[in-house]
Design goal:
Keywords: Membrane, Transmembrane, Transmembrane helix. It comes from Enterobacter cloacae. This is Calcium/proton antiporter. Helix content is about 95%, strand content about 0%. It is mainly α and about 45 residues long. It has one domain. The radius of gyration is 20 Å and the shape is rod-shaped.
Length: about 45
């Protein structure tokens, strides 16, 4: 196996690790933002 093949395998492994973490981070961020917006809307509707 050549060095280029090793580099591609390593890059693929790093990418396959980064994508799930990135997806989870985006999901958590989206949950936080939507929850915060709901809290702001409900707070302003009370006034």
């Amino acid at each position: 196996m050549t060095a280029a093949h090793e580099a591609v395998k390593t890059r693929h492994k790093e990418t396959s690790l980064i994508f799930p973490v990135l997806a989870l981070a985006v999901l958590l961020f989206w949950e936080a933002v939507s929850h915060c917006q709901w809290w702001l809307v409900s707070t302003f509707l009370r006034w």
